[in-house]
Design a protein that fits this description.
The structure is a single chain. This protein has a domain at 23-105. 43% of the residues lie in helices and 3% in strands. The protein has helices at residues 23-34, 36-39, 53-58, 71-74, 94-105, 140-151, 162-174, 180-188, 194-203, 206-221, 228-231, 239-247, 252-260, 268-271, 285-298, 317-324, 363-374, 380-395, 413-425, 430-438, 469-476; strands spanning 332-336, 339-345. Strands 1-2 form a two-stranded antiparallel sheet. The relative contact order is 0.11.
């Protein structure tokens, strides 16, 4: 398309604008209202698809960092109605065009995992039994992977040497490199079962294991925060409880129950952070509880739904406030975009199918009930979320990506469902899950760089990973 004329773009970002454009709250509503009808979900007028960031960039209408020369912006400001978008509609407001121009100038940031495509696949809630493909015997991960490679016409990745295996598995399980003598002894051994024996030996190093996985859980539980939230009576660190739980390999369902229905040692997680000064309604401790529990244990992003009905998924404001009301002392007054709605919300669990919470019960009883529902036998989402996190940690990429959006389809439903089912049937033993993964030929393969990402991702082997800061520090100290 050649534009005959265009309005001068008097929409440059001024120097006093510091915060970057918020895709979910600023860009997405504009695209949904004005562009989605003609350029998403199978309808792509002019060859332009807004389904994903990748699709948008492939449409060749955006010059990253240069809105002035991006056709995507030019067509919004054209004088000629035949050229101006959206067609047969009122022109966009100057303020909306300015937001889109800033978005382009800032690199077209996109909410991880978001797509305009209608989802034809729905993530199950309960456990899904998996019939392992043949032949009998061998690591179940390898059986599923072999079938996947065959169906997708992918050559299995090459096996790695003993030296590379020991380095990788040592870093992944305990965060430490093997010693020179340990490496030499292992490589020189002719035992066919030496890798399985070494995995068992490494996982038995309980102190090293706890030291290493503390960083993983500190990040997830936000246990390393040390700001004014402590001074004002907010959350407290749970380091002692967490370290002992890892050292003892506490069953994961018990681990979760003790966080949701806490003891004095573990209550810091649900207390949230009490920020000083004026606080947005979506940042109060009760809403933090809803966000953190939903994201950490179930892979559901409730941040948008904490302010308004979500633009990026199907969660509603009532869902976020229902979870938040679990720890409130009374029905929780609802705010939409920081303005009171005049409505109040009673305690409600995220997944109605698993059961209800008595709104007249005490706070302690509500916490006990939510711990029961979260770890109920019918809640397969709990196990699927954690095994996906472990897979991502070991393999460099999750079975589901992003790992905090478990409503996305996994590249292998069988792999995810099998590992989750196995975890639930074996006392929620996370070390067992780790052992199954690292014992597989799939894990013990050469790393690859995936040719495709997003919905088009195809698993071809483990992804290369950077050493963590802690691993690097311990390696050179």
């Amino acid at each position: 398309m050649i534009l005959k004329t265009q309005i001068p773009l008097l929409i440059a970002v001024t120097s006093f604008v510091s915060a970057k454009v918020d895709f979910a709250h600023e860009v997405l509503p504009i695209l949904k209202e004005n562009c989605a009808k003609c350029h998403t979900n199978g309808k792509y007028k002019g060859g332009l698809s807004l389904d994903t960031r990748e699709a948008l960039l492939e449409s060749d209408v955006i010059e990253l960092g240069d809105s002035q020369n991006s056709l995507f912006i030019k067509v919004l400001t054209a004088h000629d109605e035949e050229d101006r978008m959206p067609q047969d509609a009122e022109p966009l407001l100057k303020g909306d065009i300015a937001i889109l121009a800033r978005w382009v100038n800032e690199g077209v940031a996109w909410e991880k995992g978001f797509t305009f495509k209608n989802r034809t696949w729905k993530a199950p809630l309960g456990h899904q039994r998996v019939e392992l493909p043949g032949p009998e015997g061998g690591n179940p991960i390898d059986r599923i992977a072999a079938d996947y490679f065959k169906r997708n016409r992918i050559q299995s990745p090459a096996a790695i040497s003993d030296a590379r295996f020991l380095r990788r598995v040592s870093l992944d399980l305990v965060g430490l490199l093997p010693s020179k003598s340990e490496l030499e002894t292992f490589v020189a051994s002719d035992l066919g079962t030496k890798r399985e024996a070494k995995i068992k030996q490494i996982l038995s190093r309980n102190l090293d294991y706890a030291d290493h996985w503390m960083t993983f859980w500190n990040d997830l539980l936000r246990n390393d925060y040390a700001g004014t939230g402590f001074i004002d009576g907010g959350r407290r660190q749970i380091t002692g409880w967490l370290y002992l739980s890892l050292k003892e390999n506490k069953p994961y369902d018990q681990f979760v129950r003790e966080l949701l229905n806490p003891t004095a040692e573990s209550e810091g997680f649900i207390k949230g952070i009490k920020w000083r000064g004026n606080v947005n309604a979506s940042q109060v401790p009760e809403i933090q509880f809803a966000q953190n529990v939903s994201q950490l244990f179930f892979g559901e992003n409730m941040k948008c739904a904490s302010c308004h009905d979500s633009f990026i998924n199907n969660w509603k404001l009532e869902d976020a406030y229902g979870m938040a009301a679990i720890i409130a002392g009374k029905p929780l007054e609802m705010y939409r975009c920081d303005k009171p709605t005049g409505k109040k919300m009673d305690a409600k669990f995220l997944f109605d199918e698993l059961g209800s919470i008595d709104k007249t019960s005490s706070r302690d009883d509500r916490l006990k009930r939510v711990a029961e529902l979260a770890t109920a036998p019918g809640n397969g989402r709990l196990a699927r979320t954690i095994v996906n996190r472990l897979w991502a940690r070991l393999m460099g990429r999750g079975l589901v990506e992003p790992v905090d959006i478990m409503s996305n389809r996994p590249w292998s439903e069988d792999m995810l469902n099998y590992l989750a089912w196995d975890l639930s049937q074996n006392a929620y033993d996370l070390k067992r899950t780790l052992s199954i993964i690292v014992s597989s030929r799939t894990y013990q393969s050469a790393t690859v760089i995936a040719a495709k990402s997003g919905e088009d991702f195809v698993f071809e082997g483990p992804s290369a990973k950077r050493m963590t800061a802690e691993q690097f520090m311990d390696a050179v100290w």
